[in-house]
Queue: 2 jobs
Job 1
Amino acid sequence: MFSYVKEVIKTKDGKRKISVGKATAFVLFFSLILTVISGCISEAPSETIAPSETTASPEEFIDSGKLVFSVYTDIVTMDPAEAFVWYSCTIARNCYEGLCEYDIKDYSIKPLLAKSWDVSEDGTEWTFHLREGVKFQDGTDFNAEAVKFNFERINAIKKGPSTWIEKIKDVQVIDEHTVKITTEGVWAFLLDALASHRVFLIASPTYVEEHATDEDPWATEWMHGHTCGTGPYKAVEWVPEQYIKLQRNENYWKGWKGKHFSEVVYQVNKEDSTAVLKLKTGEVDLVNNLAVDFWDELKKEPNLLVKVFPSMSQFYIYMNNCRGPLEDKNLRWAITYAIDYDAMAKAANTEQAQGPLPKMMLGHDNTLPVYKRDLEKAKEYLNKSSYAGKQINLVLSYVTGAKVHVDTALIVKESLADIGINVKLQGLTWPTFAGQIYGDPREAGDMYTFYASSIIADPYGNLYKVFHSNSWNPGGANLGYSNPKVDSLLDQAANTIDREKRIEIYKEVQKVLMEDNVHIWAFTMPYIAIYQKNIKAYPYTQIGDALGNIFYFYDLYRD
Amino acid sequence: MKLRYYVIQRLITLIPVVLLVITIVFFISHTIPGDPARLLAGQQAGEEQVQKIKEEYNLDKPVPVQYYLYLRDSLRGDFGISMHTRRSVMEDIKQYYPATLELTTVSMILVIFIGIPLGVISAVKRNKFQDHIARFIAIGGVAMPVFWFAVMLQILFYYKFPVFPIGGRISYGISPPDHITGFYIFDSILTRNWAALKSSIHHIILPSICLAFSSMSSVVRQTRGEMLKVLKEDYVVAHKAYGIGNKDLIYKYALKNALIPTVSLIGLVFGTIIGSSFLVEIVFNWPGIGSYVVQSILTLDFPGIIGAVLVIAISYILINLIVDIIYTFLNPKIKL
């Protein structure tokens, strides 16, 4: 072949003017092969299946085809007794259901697998009347025995979900569709725990027992990668680090009238730029976790919608109240007035915080002051503190790679430089950072950028974890704050079933926290949903859950 | 005879190397501050859950004890359970390693069949424009950050001109071929799964081009240098005097001699890109051992880290062993 090339040129010209070397010929030939191959086998990016006839009556199932949801990481597990982080819970909550659920528009608690419930006089015995005719994916019946079985399973496995059912003493089967749950003393949050998408999801006992072994009596290995719940979808394929394929559960008790997705793909795209390109070409339909830099670019895309909405996670600049310079309250006040809140909120694409709780959270007090930068006041407090006239050096630790952390940390550093405080920024990887924040506050640093998030739509979880003195122990995120008044108020809240009464208690807690000026209340973390324009949610719900950043695929369809 | 002894000798030296790698990686990764158990349990989990995980993975024992337990188990072939995938590390390696090996093998084929000709052109057309273009390509490849190059390729050939897929090993709708070696291309051919073959080739083109161009510079320059040296040799002048044509001269005589040191280099490059392919793997969603080891490091998954690093180190050693053996066939003067 090469000699052919050489020959052609030789005979054509007589003498070789351009010596097309063997090597050059090979390179050209090779590139030609590549182009030919790519031309022959180029595939268009996978297209979405067009919805079938819209003339069909809404009494029938109209297939919206496939929904592709992109996340930056693979899930940890599908097992509802273990799944605790939002991406794992996305899969779990779409395949499994609990006794109640939250209405994601107003966070009231609605019935789901339980039709109704009553509570006894003393507040410790709750009777749930279960929905009848519900079947698991494997065809077996959902009943009270299943509820009891899962209670035992979650407690035996002792992973994340079990922390929220510690106050449940006992689950009793009264009859096939009635179950009685007894709590340790009066516990305000039973319904919240049951409504949470992370705590008490019900798996089929028959299925679990089928796959249990002697060393693994609760089938944790099998349930790690397989689902069998009452929910609208079932997992049919999991290629680790690539994708998970969910298919609709045809026997779902709510039925499939109207438009729904028959297939949902959870796709792993580790690089944000990959997800962005795929959104633009339509290969990906829905994304809820993308760095802020891309939001503006995507807002300009004609076929995408970018929805930014406040979450129930509040971002603070944590200050160490028990050691170091920040033990001094006046210094904390000085910092409070030195921070450029507007720049911080703008960088995070959200609203400034009003106190320790997000505005949409139950119990938020909207009469609280919203601090603004006031360098005069800041210098006043600085002079009142025991560090007046001295050089103050602080270390601010943040999570590397998390843009929200980095941006906020930089603004803090600049803001405090204006009143002469020197802030050293220290980037830590998440495991290291977590070790410090969840460890002993007496050994932790001065400042941390971090947020307080919720498992339930009630501030108790965050408030307890960050402000109760018990949370000085490992596992709590309390950075050295201790006030017996707050402790007793929170303990009281945990015993108060009446939501209105709890709101009053939380208002008091907020007042005390503001007076003690524990941390800098920075902003409310925004959640984002970026999706193709033709994706809609049914009117009884919305796209995007402020509590958990998960999506309920059954409630979405393609127009 | 001699060959067999030599190979066995080299394989025996693997053992102390493996031990050294395990020890170093073990102690270094355990000095990184941070709590992998807390990470696995999740932010919201209580202290009990974190404690339970610690017990599961022996993290609550003192480090030397953990080291001893690890060595004892690894002698039985049990390299532990990876904390972030929840499977045995052996399973993970069996799944992820072939992906990287396939990618790096295809990349090396490109390096050899593009890099060496580029080096030859450079040498033969020294200081003419072909030389400059070839050098530009080679240096440009290594100067560009490989992850930037990867994203550029995606934007150009996926977004602007939809010719190639953006990532992954195979199209979403097509099942991977039956697992024989773990190489999708090879397995598709063996099982005559033509749809999978088409899709696998289509998916490997961009990542392998990216990896190849980022690593071929040294091969190009080495080939060029060696060719220049060889072309000055007396026997080359003699050949020219005898009237042996240029083509034959370059390829039959000069190149073979020039290639000898390059073969060694190719072995080094191959071993290196097995370990450093992770940037390409992450951008192109290529589920290989590179992205596995990065994920393990980020989650402080000690069994995963040690297992992956061990596999990469052993590959490096074995590749160099093979290269050394090939060397002796190329140059009979070199005895083992």
Job 2
Amino acid sequence: MNRFAPSPGANAAGLRRDDSVERLALFALSAPALLLVLVTMIAPVAWLFGLSFLDDAGSVSLEHYRRMIDQPSYGRTFLVTFQVSLLTTAICIAAGYPLAYAVSQMPTRAANLCLILVLLPFWTSLLVRTYAWLVLLQRKGLINEWGIRLGWWDEPLALVHNMTGTLIGMVHIMLPFLVLPLLGAMRAIDADYQKAAASLGASPMRAFWSVFFPLSMPGLLAGTLIVFILCLGFYVTPAVLGGGKVIMVSNHIANDIELFFNWGAASALGVVLLVLTLAFLFVAVRLLRLDKVLGGVHG
Amino acid sequence: MTRRAAVPIAVRALCKTYGKVLALNDVELDVRGGEFLTLLGPSGSGKTTLLMVLAGFIRPDQGSLKFGDDEVIRLAPHKRDIGMVFQNYALFPHMDVATNVAFPLKLRGVKGADQQRRVEVALQTVQLEGYGARRIDELSGGQRQRVALARAIVFEPRIVLMDEPLSALDKQLRERMQIELRQLHEKLGTTTIYVTHDQREALTMSDRIAVISGGRIMQLDTPQVIYEQPKNRFVAEFIGESTFLKAELDGAELCRCAGQVLRLGRAASARGPGVVMLRPERLRILQGEAGGTENMLTARVVNTIYQGDSFLLQAQLADGTALSARGMAGQGSLASLPGVGAQVRLSFSVADTVWLADAAA
């Protein structure tokens, strides 16, 4: 009955075209990044994947994968990799959660200062930091010298060239990756929640465990996942601070290439690590409903 | 919900400074048991600070706070037995409605069927029966508000505190909730302190209103007294529309205003300069003869504004002082409004003529 209603379909074709032009423009903008990923990530991985199925003579075989099952050293490598990653992640959580909590409760100025201190190592080369730990931790290093001088222990402690040194170095490097997402989640928690809990009769401890901690979980899980996955592929720190005693998958890959020039074996290791990491991620996402966490969906 | 003996609150010599700012300046306040008392003031007046001190979230510099006979000024918030409703509701997003409401019961060791029953009763009280399994983010603003209320009253606290609980709701819902909150209070009879900056909300809901400004209580009285007999210019200005006319006292019960004599509703207690306060809706346009018992001012019409339910007539006295009158907008009354520039006689009762000495401002 409306006399002013437009004739059906007026401008419809034109408006649809505007829509598709907009979508195309959006795609064009992301094209360079997509191309880069394709060239630097997808292509090499595909190439390595192919290499891992070729034997020394260049014919297709499962030789490299069979060797991984036959030789116990490979199994040990994977075991060590997961062991180091799990321990590093656990220590990061134990040290990082209280740190993030403290920073989240500070006044803005102090919190920003602390955040800079947490981030400072980020801006220094990983290699430099790792060698710095070597200087600190070795038999005649700063820590052992002072420990003995102050009479805390008599013999130099074996702090480096072993698991201990590897863990110290890796925790130091990984801590910001845990603290940053965690702090983000904690800062998003309204201070009124804890006040509400208190007014309803919850002691500070109770309010923390029943309100603050559950609400910080998304950040904690995100940080944990990032740290654990980064740990799985770590190379420099175990190589320098592990002193050849802590062989993780990356170190094994490097050995295969540098010592044995065996690209096929190295590729196979890479493929297995990639598959295991993806499998772990898949299970974690499914079990912990991390799709929600990583998607940032909050209540 | 059962009625419990209502607890009075006594605040004495309460002070709180932030740097050089006095947020609470020697506050004295007595809240009767079972009373619905509103702290009304502009933002930054200290009303929320006072509420937070009562709740225990802000530690004052000095003073005393008693719930009944118990001194609680140093008591931790979770031991004060207060039900609090926050401005943003502060419902726990990781718990459903029933778990939120059961939270204070769980902390008090109320378990199983008893807990369930009390949660149901509380949800019923706020008209949300059957919403127990809903997630918080599935609720509308009004429903969240009700859940927050249910959570604050389910454990039958001694005192209920509300911090602008309706400010996030739209106007219609807010007005409905005002009535509901008031009815709920009458049913429960819990001592309730309510913070708002909305004067109409305060007038609608309260037994008494404490008007706060600059960390001090400017006036504490029933809504009617606050509105009809404000003690000072701040209260008169903050609540309702008001017109202030410069005037000189002529004896205790007369004053002179732009050459016209007005009788005062209450005798001025002190001499000296002051103003006469008039409420625009108490002024009438006089058509016939002036009644002998009324005050009257002659003014020139500057503007008439149509505002739907009412009209506003802006006028000037001979000396240029502006004043306004508000009338109900009926079809007839609008047609008979005087035109711009016309002389009108505005009459108002002596009781509505309020003298405010400048010193009290």
